[in-house]
């Protein structure tokens, strides 16, 4: 493990770390973390045996697709910015990426999604039964390295990491339950506060809060430092998800890797769509809600009429007429600005390093990225 | 918790425990354990808050349906037969029941099952998305009490229990992966050894091996005692599943609680069906395999022709002509006899008690029951 200490992560060839990485350096940082984490995930899976082709190879499918691997990078960067070492945090970071990909598989089933990272979703390739089981398998497999963590970081910290993972899983499921309940009951009379509570739990918690909290635990951070970083992570996570919803409607297909306008086809509850519905006339709102109650045409087991391209064009027109994309961009920027201020509160505990500069860069990335 | 020590569990009113409980006493033992475990599960769930109706109430749906609750009873009986106390094992037993019900929800989705415990399956009532999420939520929630276990049984034993749970989850998923792979590739050229390996992992591990192993850990059992009990549990678990498959074709609807012949409609790989296929003529085998490749008519998203009542009658006729039910009954009895011998190896560590008498009774129950 010692060799990993000397990887480019440490200084990216710079003598004095900048306050904030530029886009190129940030992409390099993400790439380096991703390579380390993928190797760790491969090491966690059985290399041979009768279950490899029917189970373990499928667990690698999503992780090996093109992805940012933002979550493990946040975990590693937080730990190292606080003076912790790569070799004690890498396993926890890999577990987070495994959890993330398990959630993605089950989310794709639950949302009836077609594409993930530029390729068909796992349940489109192998059917819902195998996809659900592979996701369960990844959740099961993620437990073992967290137990083995005791040898790496001691009993006390290993248990605290497990506590955060248990809470993360609960928060994600509660957030997902909120949205599934809205879908089931056709609830669209929702404000930004409803939306923020849902994505904070469903998305921000496991994308930002848990990775940074775990990174901080591993680095022996104290309670005030963790409190500041948790606040930063929660605020930035909300900004991230709002911008992600914007990208779903505006990004270039190749860079984004998901189906453009997929959120409209799936009828997802985004801040954008909720804004457009609030701004629409009663007649338009009624028509939009009827459209949103229809399944996408390729959904398995769809009952009743399904959405048409004209339906989706209508939803898009409401969004464009209400200026909902600009509204959401502004919302995302305001949450990111709050996050930027929160990060400053954690600075007393952070050593000047490329890792802290990465965290600072993530704030800009969240609202400026086109991928 | 002290009061639970005085419950009928302790002696069922008998002065000297018998070697083996009779059917009435065994049913009472199961009922007592179930009541305790259900209360513990209710205590684990948030009693109020915004997620109760959309998530936590749904987690109680399957556990509150009529069920034997065999798994927690095995865990409790093992612990107490070895001299452990009820109040230190109850939480782990409740977690096992929670895991079991989470697996059932996902299994029902994966198998496209219609009925569970005499009522529609969760995904038939609430849709696949909510069912998958509720199962994930139960897996997430099960982690916390296992972490809190450290206060109840100390760090060392709590971690060993977690290790067994992690292994249990992996074994179940691997077993499920084997069967899903057989289904996907229409594999029916399988012998008893293939079947046994699959159900040992998919069913025996989490029904018998993990509950008894965990009960033994909590009771401070040593390695030789645990080895004997693991052997007993694995053998009995296989016997149990074979007999369960027999019941699926022979039980009375009301006592069984699942759809009779549901395994044929779903095309499950049972020892019975595999035997019938091996015994059939080449022409009949070919026709049966074509039938088994068809979905059940009510399966969501079914493509191509679906099974008809005549199809299922044909499968049933092959089974009856080959004497496959008697073959499976004999197989189940042989595995149970091996289990009976293995239990004797654990006797040196077991105090004479109603709990040991329950374990002895389970052996007979496994192959004689009609529910």
For the CA atoms, what is the radius of gyration of chain A? 21 Å
Number of helices of chain A: 16
Please give the largest β-sheet of chain A.
Answer: 2 strands, antiparallel
Q: Averaging pLDDT over every residue of chain A, what do you get?
A: 90
Quantity of strands of chain A, as a count: 2
Distance between the termini of chain A: 32 Å
Helix residue percentage of chain A: over 70%
Q: Return the structural class of chain A.
A: mainly alpha
Largest interface: A-B, 46 and 46 residues
Query: Strand-residue fraction of chain A?
Result: under 5%
Uncertain ranges of chain A: 1-9
Folded structure, characterized:
Two copies of one chain form a homodimer. With about 375 residues, chain A is mainly α. Chain A has 16 helices and two strands. A two-stranded antiparallel ribbon of chain A has the order 1-2. In chain A, strand 1 (about 115) and strand 2 (about 120) form a beta hairpin. Chain A is globular, with a radius of gyration of 21 Å. The first copy, chain A, starts with about 20 loop residues before the first helix and ends with a helix. The model of chain A is unreliable at about 1-10 (pLDDT under 50). Chains A and B meet through helix 5 and helix 7 of A and helix 4 and helix 6 of B.
């Amino acid at each position: 493990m010692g060799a990993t200490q000397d990887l480019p992560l440490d200084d990216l060839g710079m003598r004095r770390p900048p306050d904030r990485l530029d886009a190129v350096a940030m992409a390099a940082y993400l790439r380096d973390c991703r390579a380390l984490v993928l190797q760790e995930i491969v090491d966690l899976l059985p290399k041979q045996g009768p279950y490899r082709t029917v189970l373990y190879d499928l667990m690698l499918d999503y992780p090996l697709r093109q992805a940012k691997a933002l979550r493990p990078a946040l975990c590693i960067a937080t730990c190292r910015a606080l003076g912790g070492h790569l070799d004690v945090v890498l396993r926890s970071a890999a577990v987070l990426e495994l959890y993330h990909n398990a959630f993605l598989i089950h989310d794709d089933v639950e949302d009836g999604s077609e594409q993930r990272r530029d390729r068909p979703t796992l349940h489109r390739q192998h059917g819902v039964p195998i996809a659900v089981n592979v996701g369960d398998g990844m959740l099961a497999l993620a437990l073992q390295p967290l137990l083995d963590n005791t040898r790496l970081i001691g009993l006390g910290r290993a248990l605290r990491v497990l506590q955060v993972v248990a809470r993360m899983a609960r928060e994600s499921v509660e957030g997902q339950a909120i949205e599934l309940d809205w879908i089931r009951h056709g609830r669209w009379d929702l404000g930004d506060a409803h939306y923020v509570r849902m994505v904070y739990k469903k998305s921000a918690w496991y994308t930002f809060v848990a990775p940074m909290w775990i990174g901080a635990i591993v680095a022996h951070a104290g309670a005030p430092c963790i409190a500041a970083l948790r606040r930063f992570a929660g605020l930035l996570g909300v900004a991230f998800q709002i911008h992600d919803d914007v990208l779903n409607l505006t990004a270039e297909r190749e860079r984004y890797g998901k189906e453009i306008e997929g959120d409209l086809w799936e009828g997802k509850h985004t801040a954008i769509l909720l804004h457009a519905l609030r701004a629409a006339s009663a007649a338009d709102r009624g028509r939009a809600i009827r459209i949103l109650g229809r399944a996408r045409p390729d959904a398995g087991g769809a009952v009743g009429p399904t959405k048409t391209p004209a339906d989706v064009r209508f939803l898009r027109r409401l969004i464009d007429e209400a200026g909902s994309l600009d509204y959401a961009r502004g919302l995302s920027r305001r949450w990111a600005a709050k996050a930027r201020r929160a990060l400053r509160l954690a600075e007393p505990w952070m050593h000047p390093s490329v890792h802290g500069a990465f965290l600072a860069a993530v704030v800009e990335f969240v609202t400026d990225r086109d991928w």
